[in-house]
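Priority: medium. Attachment 1 of 2:
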């Protein structure tokens, strides 16, 4: 099937969760920084916006932009050896971007059991694939809002190394 230029420009949103590969878990802070920098640069070049979250042993990401570029980015991520068990939570056409102005925002979280229970309706932190698309969007949207309203990003983000690079486009 050939994709027309019009179809390629249709906006699309994709949300996925993945588990960090075992060799990444012990070095999550530096792995996250590396992934974040690469995503920030790649997203700028591909006209993709979105957010990335790392928490203990898993990642959560939202990508939005031209459909073929979003899917191409997702396919590259799926082949990245730092990810295991990738769960596509939602993919859909959209009318407008939620993360307009952000090539990539993100952070590493260290959540308490009470917060995680509230966010995931009682699901364990080790089960990112059980996040609902609405909860995932809400969590990533909260990261965007914290970063947009707090130059130091200290509200509940855990000192991510690439923090200074999470700037508006």
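Attachment 2 of 2:
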């Amino acid at each position: 099937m050939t994709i027309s230029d019009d179809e390629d420009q249709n906006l699309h949103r994709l949300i996925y969760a993945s588990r960090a590969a075992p060799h990444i878990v012990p070095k999550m802070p530096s792995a996250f920084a590396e992934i974040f920098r690469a995503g920030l640069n790649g997203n700028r070049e591909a006209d993709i916006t979105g957010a990335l979250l790392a928490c203990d042993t898993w990642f959560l990401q939202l990508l939005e932009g031209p459909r073929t570029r979003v899917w191409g980015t997702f396919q590259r991520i799926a082949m990245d050896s730092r990810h295991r068990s990738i769960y596509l939570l939602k993919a859909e056409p959209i009318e407008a971007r939620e993360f307009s102005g952000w090539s990539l925002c993100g952070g590493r979280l260290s959540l308490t059991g009470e917060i995680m229970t509230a966010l995931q309706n009682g699901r364990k932190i080790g089960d990112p694939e059980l996040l609902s698309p609405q909860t995932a969007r809400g969590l990533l949207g909260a990261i965007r809002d914290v970063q947009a309203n707090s130059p130091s990003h200290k509200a509940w983000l855990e000192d991510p190394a690439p923090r200074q690079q999470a700037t508006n486009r």
